[in-house]
Write a structure and sequence with these properties.
Length: 153
C-alpha cells in the first residue's frame, strides 16, 4: 500500500477541472444575462463541490495520519517521502486549478452582486421608491389610475 493511499489525486484533479469549466460557463451566463440556465449550472456546481468534499477530507486526514500539517507544504513533504513522484505534478496542478476555481467564484459573486444591484434599482423605480408614485403594487398590478373628468361645453 502506498503512502498516499487512499487519496486519489487524478480523480480530485478531474473534479476541480470540471468545477472550473462550470464556473466559466456560469460567468458567461451571468455576463450575457441569459439566466435561464443558471439554475442547472448552480445544481451542477453544487454536485461537484459535494463530490470534492470527501477527496479534500481524505487528503487532510492523510496528512494528519502522517504527522504532517494540513497545508501545501505538508502535502509536498508527504509526496517527497513517498516513492510516488508522479503525484507531485498532479498535486501542483490541483492547487493551481483550485486557485482558479476560487478566483472565478469570486468574480462570479461580484457579477451576481452587480446584477442584483441593477435589478434592485429597476424595482425601486417601478415601485416608486425613487421618489415618485408607485406604478405597481407587490402583486404586480398597476396602482396609478387616470382620473376621468367630464368636459363641459
Amino acid at each position: 500500500m502506498s503512502a498516499l493511499h487512499p487519496w486519489q489525486p487524478e480523480t480530485e484533479l478531474s473534479l476541480w477541472k470540471q468545477l472550473v469549466a462550470t464556473l466559466i460557463q456560469e460567468q458567461v451566463v451571468l455576463r450575457d444575462g441569459n439566466i435561464d440556465t443558471l439554475t442547472d449550472l448552480a445544481a451542477h456546481k453544487r454536485n461537484l463541490v459535494v463530490a470534492l468534499a470527501p477527496h479534500i477530507k481524505t487528503r487532510g486526514r492523510l496528512l494528519i495520519d502522517n504527522g504532517l500539517p494540513s497545508t501545501d507544504q505538508g502535502m509536498e513533504s508527504l509526496i517527497q517521502q513517498s516513492q510516488e513522484r508522479q503525484a507531485g505534478p498532479v498535486w501542483r496542478e490541483i492547487r493551481e486549478t483550485e486557485r482558479m476555481a476560487r478566483d472565478l467564484n469570486q468574480i462570479n459573486g461580484r457579477l451576481i452582486n452587480l446584477r442584483m444591484g441593477s435589478v434592485e434599482q429597476a424595482l425601486n423605480v417601478l415601485s416608486g421608491a425613487a421618489g415618485g408614485q408607485k406604478l405597481y403594487n407587490p402583486g404586480g398590478q398597476a396602482t396609478y389610475r387616470m382620473h376621468s373628468r367630464a368636459i363641459s361645453v
